[in-house]
């Protein structure tokens, strides 16, 4: 489970405490008291009256607006940091997903496999950076430790997908070869002149099927060749 330590609640509390500490530099100053006329008098003064604790409530509207902007800035920093962290949470799926669920969803659709492998490759590139943290004012999100773990998880997923993809390509290629071989055998062994009526009908059906599937077969060959090149680049053993 990907979590942030300490959580944003703690970071928000610390930012506000830092801001209040800055305010207290002024509000904690002791008030100047003239006690010359009260040498023998007992002075009953509330503790809060001895400092400028209520000073900010007496500021003009322009000054109060500046204090409001400080609060807004803190909230904006927290929001930006949370949005950035949400981008890291998407990698949690690498641990939540089961490989077999992905395999079943992709099925034997070669194009879907191409797109899946491409997406994983592109997503993996975002981790290849020398940066180890992201700053939002005084807030710093250090992702150096999880970055390495996610990279390893990505590589494991890619290897599992490539292994399964190779098996599927072999199955698809074998089925395609069997289908083409049957059509070729029918075309080469049967003749309209010398065959029986059934042979002639079968031959005509085969010719029509080959014509109808020619474009699809050409695309299939192109896909299989592309898949072969991809697997060879990954040193897949056929």
UniProtKB/TrEMBL annotation:
InterPro entries (alphabetical): DHC
GO molecular function: dynein intermediate chain binding; dynein light intermediate chain binding
GO CC list: axonemal dynein complex
Domain of life of the organism encoding this protein: Eukaryota
One BP term from GO: microtubule-based movement
UniProt similarity note: Belongs to the dynein heavy chain family.
Protein name: Uncharacterized protein
